[in-house]
Amino acid sequence: MKLVSSLIFSLLLCGGTAFATPVSTVHVDGNFGFRFHDESGAITNRVMFGNPYRTEDASTIAFELNLDRDTGTVTASGSAVGLDFGTANVRTGEAEFGEVTGSWSMTWTDLVFDNDPVSGEELIAIGRDGVGFGSLELSAAHFDTDLTIALEARETANANLWGYLTNDGADPFHFLLGQGPDGYVYEGEILSAWIGSAQSFNLNGGNFTLKGDFHGETVPEPATVVLLGAGLLGMALRRRQIA
Question: Which residues have a Cβ under 8 Å from the Cβ of 182 and sit 6 or more positions away?
Answer without folding.
Answer: none
